[in-house]
Amino acid sequence: MSTSLPDPPTQTGLLAYYTFDDLLNKQGNAAWNGALGGGASINATNTSCNLVIDSCHVDSCASWLNLAAYPAFVSIGDLDVSGNTITIEAEINRTQPYLPGGGNNSEGDVVSKHTDPPNVNYLLRPNHAYITTTNGFFGTPDVCEIELNKTYHIAMVYDGTTLKYYRNGFLLSQVAATGSLIQNDLNTQIGLYPGSIYSTQFLGYVNNVRIWNVARTQSQIRANMNAALPNPATQTGLLAYYSFDNLINKQGNTNWDGSISGAAAINSSNTNCSFIIDSCNIIVPVTLTDFKASVINNKKIALTWNTQDELNISNYFVQRSTSGYEPDFITLGNVVSKSNSHSNSYNFIDNTAKPNILYYYKLLINDNDGSKKSSSTRTARIVNKDFYTLVYPNPTSGIIKVIINNAVSDVNISVTNELGQIVTTKKVSTIPANPVLIDISDVTKGTYFITIQSAENKWIEKIVKM
User: Fold this and answer.
1) Residue 158: partners with Cβ closer than 8 Å, 6 or more residues away
2) Of 399, 396, 393, the residue nearest 439 (C-alpha)
3) Do the beta carbons of residue 78 and residue 85 sit within 8 Å?
4) What SS3 class is residue 267?
5) pLDDT, tens digit (0-9, with 9 covering 90-100), for 133-176
6) What is the dihedral of CA 75, 69, 92, 83, to 10 degrees?
7) Nearest to 174, CA basis, from 147, 141, 148, 198
8) Nearest to residue 347, comparing CAs of 298, 291, 308, 296?
9) Is 140 in contact with 128 (CB distance < 8 Å)?
10) What is the greatest pairwise CA distance in the chain?
11) 293-307 pLDDT, tens per residue?
12) Which of 76, 218, 328, 432 is deepest in the core (most CB within 10 A)?
């Protein structure tokens, strides 16, 4: 780029070449020798001729953050966003599929400042966004999955009334939300969710991460989705900006310069960096409010929800899972939409719920044109007080203690992994006064499920091996 071209006459395809010590075509064809015009002159001195690569290269395939294996992330310190407005943006390319049933490669956070739902300052993922405010925890409904080896722009925006999720500049989902963003003392991390129970890893490429304390409009988001942000230091509300040719905060505040950890690498090549608008650009025309799962008379679970701006909705499928992971949800029933209306109220009774099992519920919303979106999840458990258990410590490093009360028959205890495979079992014929000890010291770290079952009752608890 910044040196003389060797042997110009032998360069395949070269037609003309000028270095302006003279006007000769150094490729050799004299027909294309130059002629000066006007005030032009040759053999002049350029006093600023050093070649310095500029920062306007984030739309190329070079200089991406590569998160190839767990754990891999960039930490940028305790960057809280306060108030009731925020925008988070990033370009992503997922290169590895999710693990079934969760695990370190399940879903994965792109930009994360949280460990659990009560302390989410902000959280941006490939399919949804979360915040926690002084009025509660809010999450946008999941949208269609991203394809592997394809580059997307994702963004979350909270404006004090609504939390919105954008992909490639299209508004794909939203949820009503109010209140001021909660604060925490955690580091913001790019690529890894450092949960208190388990961690998840985004595996692929990340670039063009921007954190704002203002609510950006759709047109503002679209203006620089796959290009460098001009004049970062002068952008109103911009707190941090990373393009991963280095770890410097290009907004200018060095307090938020990044540090790299694990298998992460910068200046990596994303060979599928072409920005192609995907087809998942439909927002199902309804907003859910007050979606709840409530135990009724300790015998059944009632799902209730209200809607706003409901238009051309066909029906709502009520879905349930005992793990909370997407592949495990089954459909319990179907509730037909009432009408096109500013607001409607719905309910569904789950009469099949068994005692002492924590259930996860969500709604699959169908539009008349075939479009679909999922709600966030809600949990509920019917407690049979005649039979209950206490499982501790959780998380555990190996030994689980189980206290069983008021069992009237033999109790079988089993521990399964996220794929449903049994890792250990124990049968208890006489319920002891002391805790029953279950040893999982030899299993790998991760999420497991312990089931305590008698002839009359069943109790399932999620546990984490640290």
Assistant:
1) 84, 85, 86, 87, 131, 164, 177, 181, 215
2) 399
3) no
4) strand
5) 999 999 998 887 888 899 999 999 999 999 999 998 888 888 99
6) -30
7) 141
8) 291
9) yes
10) 104
11) 998 888 899 999 998
12) 76
